[in-house]
Amino acid sequence: MPLKIVQNFDSSFTIEPQAQESLFKLLTNEAFLNQVCQQLNCEKVEFTELLFQPVPYSLTTPKGMPAEFEKYHDNSEYAIINVPPNFMYNAKIFKPSRLCAIYMKINS
Questions:
Q1: pTM to 2 decimal places
Q2: CB contact set of 32 (below 8 Å; sequence gap of 6+)
Q3: What sign for the dihedral angle of Cα 16, 66, 99, 94?
Q4: pLDDT digits over 50-77, tens only?
Q5: CB 99 within 8 A of CB 83
Q6: E strands present in the chain
Q7: How far is C-alpha 79 from the geometric centre of its chain's CA atoms?
Q8: What is the pLDDT of residues 10-55, one digit of tens each?
Q9: What is the per-residue pLDDT across 84-97, written as a single tens digit (0 to 9) for each?
Q10: pLDDT: is 99 or 2 the higher one?
Q11: How far apart are the first and last CA of the chain?
């Protein structure tokens, strides 16, 4: 099966305000934040309210994310996580089908 090379991928998306509010509540839920902290081995995390749609790997997007978010990928003070599918479903977000959220690690 040949590989299909994607030259351009539109990573822009919009989320309805009510769906965004629901998703942000889920992403800032205390139990979820504790779970993220446990996985990252840090004391506390804070949701930056930055979301992006993963993109296909290409010469212009070697990390699989829009270029403007790559600065968070290489920064140890931040963590990028996949938004759990059940959060997307509960917030009634079906397009895009996948999102990533950026959290800032806070160590006292």
A1: 0.84
A2: 26
A3: positive
A4: 999 998 877 777 888 888 999 999 899 9
A5: yes
A6: 44-52, 78-82, 100-106
A7: 9
A8: 556 688 999 999 999 999 999 999 999 999 999 999 999 999 999 8
A9: 999 999 999 998 88
A10: 99
A11: 51
- Specify the 3-state DSSP secondary structure of 78: strand
Q: Exposed, middle or buried, 37 (CB in 10 Å: 0-12/13-18/19+)?
A: middle
Measured distance CA(98)–CA(89) in Å, rounded: 11
Two structure tokens written together for 7:
């030259």
Q: Which two tokens stand for residue 78?
A: 């931040």
CA–CA dist 82, 100 (Å, integer): 4
Say if CB 73 and CB 65 are below 8 A apart: yes
Burial class of residue 79 in the structure, from the number of CB atoms within 10 Å of its CB (0-12 exposed, 13-18 middle, 19+ buried): buried
